[in-house]
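Subject: mismatched residue count in predicted assembly?

I count 238 residues in my input, but I want to confirm that the predicted structure covers every chain. Input:
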Amino acid sequence: MQVTVCFYSWFKDLTGCSSVTERIAPGTTLGELYKKLKERFPKLAAMQKSTLMAVGVNYQDAAYVLSDGDEVSFFPPVQGG
Amino acid sequence: MSSRTATKSPSFRRCKGVKLSEASVMDQRMKRELLIAKEPIDEASLLGSRKMSSAMGAAVYFLGVVRDTEQNQPIQALEYESFQRMAEHQFNLLFDQIEKRWPIESVRVVHRIGLIEVNEPSLWVEVIAPHRGEAFAACQWLIDEMKKLVPIWKKPV
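Triage response: the counts match. Full output below for your records.
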């Protein structure tokens, strides 16, 4: 199955792109996807402890099991105001 | 890109200790307005469009302005970026919580994104309530939670 991964703020600089499409196995968790992307984009590893993860418009944790077509977002701590 | 939402959510539940004179306020749904847009914040227009019922005694508003330093370094401006759909959703979840916690008549939020120069406002928040206590508390809480949950980022220019 396939998911879209979007990067925001300086994560776009770390990865060099704003989004990628990833093929993953059924049952893949958000944490497993993040680990896979760290291998592809090693600069993400430095931000691991402060990375926020969302699926659609809701925050999710690493144990969240992904579905085909999900839109995943990884981004740094928010700074509105 | 801009977006405007004006949505209503379920009625506020009555709490113990609420005076009868305030019950009519709490029977009504909290009005909410949210705008995340690149256009400059027009304070005069926002103040001019304020609506308060006769039962309301407090209107608190907050204006966040870009400072001339960021992490002790001088800056000319801040560039704000948002994940628009999620930002709107997260703001609405916060509005839901405000409606459950305080007898608020209305909340209006304008967050500017894009390039914002020093001394220009980036955030405007207004809370209208029967008394100042809940108006100040809800306004402070909303801004604090926004800074933890709403996906908006800034970088110095």
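Chain A has a mean pLDDT of 97. Marking this ticket as 'not a bug'.
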